[in-house]
Write a structure and sequence with these properties.
360 residues, alpha/beta, Rossmann fold, 2 domains, seven-stranded mixed β-sheet, 11 helices
């Protein structure tokens, strides 16, 4: 009798919830850090990366916990912030600014288990990937619109790195594809985010007679200047019609959400790998949109048609229809040839039609 009772008690223990094993603890969310080179504003470079971070939160929910640090200067400050994020347990850290590349590599050596993404950088390591976009595709399209409406353009530029040079050249080639005598005047700032100087540079260019302006800096100051002066401007990074409702011709926008989400999911899945990644119009990372009220419908239609051509591979901004010359008259590419990705990534010349020289 007691033997049977003992067996029954054992059986009851095996099936009773009171004696069952405790559920496995929930997996901790993946902590992801973002470092921003300028203050988080309503539009611009940082805004687009912040929207990318928010897209990660929306897509992955409780699987991730994201954070960001804004207005971090390139150099020693960047290294300190990136290192702090790693120490705080962030296992994936995005550093979207060219000047963050070296600090990211330095910190990565000390945190081999942390994954880093150097956005706009070009040096990789076992735990450092690089990502970039073919921003120049959008610049070429913007140039087509500018060339249809103006014979001269201004360009406020941050630093003479290949990414910026590509944009100036593609914009100029786009203008000259529809207006062969178009000229582009460039003002170099030596800064990514300095709204007062960005505004002053734009005003200087307007005083020199430019009819439309583009820029590669981080604020909306150039757009505001164009609105104030009654001129046309190309928004960059974001749609900026909120601050320049009449001035905005169109916007070249950047879309980071899908890329950031895919890379975070790769870490969650355990299959993250280093490498060089990116995309352009075809992949939806770069696009021209947000046309303003002063762009003729036929010009907008033309730009959208050329955007479809780029997406389909029928058009490349750096394919030379005739010999491609620099602005000193030297041939840099024979007619019918196309610059390779490696050549584009190392671009260090200004095309014919751009006034001025690259800063030393």
């Amino acid at each position: 009798m007691y033997k049977n009772l003992a067996a029954a008690l054992v059986a009851a223990c095996l099936v009773s919830p009171a004696f069952s094993q405790s559920p496995a603890p929930e997996k901790e969310p993946l902590k992801i850090g973002f470092v921003y080179v300028a203050p988080l504003a309503e539009a611009g470079w940082v805004r687009q990366h912040e929207e990318g971070r928010q897209a990660v939160d929306a897509a992955l929910g409780s699987k991730v916990k994201t954070t960001y640090v804004e207005n971090v200067a390139e150099g020693a400050d960047a290294e300190r912030v990136i290192r702090d994020l790693a120490r705080q347990g962030n296992m994936l850290i995005f550093t979207p600014s060219f000047g963050y590349m070296e600090p990211t590599l330095k910190v990565a050596k000390d945190f081999p288990d942390v994954k880093f993404e150097s956005v706009t950088g070009y040096k990789t390591a076992p735990n450092v990937a690089v990502a970039n976009a073919r921003y120049y595709e959008g610049r070429y399209l913007a140039g087509i619109a500018a060339g249809r409406l103006a014979g001269s353009a201004g360009y406020v530029a941050g630093f003479p790195i290949p990414e910026v040079i590509q944009g100036i050249n593609a914009f100029t080639l786009g203008m000259r594809s529809v207006n062969p005598q178009a000229e582009v005047k460039v003002v170099w700032l030596g800064a990514w985010f300095d709204p007062p100087r960005e505004r002053d540079a734009a005003m200087t260019l307007f005083n020199q007679g430019v009819e439309v302006i583009a820029f590669h800096t981080g604020s909306t100051a150039v757009m505001r200047a164009a609105q104030e002066r009654g001129k046309l401007a190309i928004a960059y990074h974001s749609d900026m019609r909120k601050v320049a409702p009449d001035a905005q011709l169109l916007a070249v926008t950047h879309q980071w959400g899908n890329y950031y989400t895919r890379r975070a999911q790769a870490v969650l899945d355990g299959n993250w790998k280093s490498g060089a990644f990116g995309g352009g119009v075809k992949e939806g990372m770069v696009r021209v949109d947000s046309f303003g009220p002063k762009i003729p419908k036929q010009v907008a239609a033309e730009v959208m048609a050329r955007q479809r051509d780029i997406a389909a591979g029928r058009l490349h901004p750096f394919k030379a229809q005739t010999a491609l010359l620099d602005n000193e008259g030297q041939e840099v590419l024979a007619a019918g040839k196309t610059l390779t990705d490696a050549q584009i990534l190392a671009m260090n010349f200004l095309v014919q039609g751009v006034q001025g020289k690259l800063p030393k």
